[in-house]
Amino acid sequence: MTTTLPALYDRLAEAAGEAARIARGAAGAPLDSPTPDAEWDLRALVDHWVLYSAHGLECRARRQPIPDDLAARDFAAEPDWPEQYAAQLDRALAAWREPAAWEGEIDLGGMSVPADTVAGMLVKELTVHGWDVARATGQDLAVGEETARLVLDLVVEHGALFREYGGFAAELPVDDATPTFERALRLSGRDPHWRRP
Questions:
Q1: Each residue of 60-100: pLDDT tens digit?
Q2: pLDDT surpassing 90 at residue 115
Q3: Contact predicate 195/135, CB 8 Å
Q4: Exposed, middle or buried by CB within 10 Å (0-12, 13-18, 19+), for 106?
Q5: What is the pLDDT of residues 163-189, one digit of tens each?
Q6: Beta carbons of 82 and 49 less than 8 angstroms apart
Q7: Are residues 55 and 42 in contact, defined by beta-carbon separation less than 8 angstroms?
């Protein structure tokens, strides 16, 4: 019997594939490079991105905490981190291909959140920080309109919470002509025109 996964799985897979491409394009970039987030250099950004968007992605699906040794690991210092990241994304996607991953709720540090909401938040993590890494390393991120719309909806819905925890800066202006993903970036406090110095 074949089980049909939620359409959100396709958004997750697209975001993960683009994240892996960007990671490979970032190989060898100086780890002290500036990023769109003035508080993080490339090392800090990559370590956060790898931990939460790849290892966290699998742990959430399996309802497991992120191990302490991973939280303390300097992924960016490992020469083959882009390939390790891509392989971990594959493992995480395999975990989300299990129907049980989409059932019930997931504990996010004392707060229970529906599994599909968590999956959407992880698409946001993959793409928004993926854009940060891309721009810090002279690349561009490309996602389809459906994924861009999902990210925008999440940024709008959870923006206040992300700002409270320092994940987003103050919103930048948007208008009716602003493309969907650019709108998501602006509402997360990111300047879509930021380029590495």
A1: 999 999 999 999 999 999 999 999 999 999 999 999 999 99
A2: yes
A3: yes
A4: buried
A5: 777 778 888 999 989 999 999 999 999
A6: no
A7: no
Q: How confident is the model at residue 3 (pLDDT cuts 50, 70, 90)?
A: low
Give the distance between the most distant pair of CA atoms in the chain.
54
What distance in Å separates the CA atoms of residue 51 and residue 25, rounded to the nearest whole number?
18
Q: 176: Cβ–Cβ under 8 A, 6 or more apart, which residues?
A: none
E strand or H helix that includes residue 114: strand 112-114
* Bridge partners, 106 (sequence order): 113
Measured CA to CA, the distance from residue 97 to residue 27 in angstroms comes to: 29
What is the C-alpha separation between 108 and 110, in angstroms, rounded? 6
Rounded mean pLDDT of 24-46? 96
Helix (H, G, I), strand (E, B) or coil at 196: coil
**3-class secondary structure, 172:** coil
Structure tokens at 97: 């291909």
Q: What region does 193 belong to: left with phi over 0, alpha with psi -120 to 50, or beta?
A: alpha
| Helix, strand, coil in percent for the chain, rounding step 5 | 60, 5, 35
Comparing CA positions, the residue from 180, 100, 117 lying closest to residue 146 is 180
CA-to-CA distance for 145 and 141, rounded, in angstroms? 13
For the chain, list the strands marked E by DSSP: 105-107, 112-114
Which pair of structure tokens corresponds to residue 118? 């968590």
Name the amino acid, one letter, at 158.
H
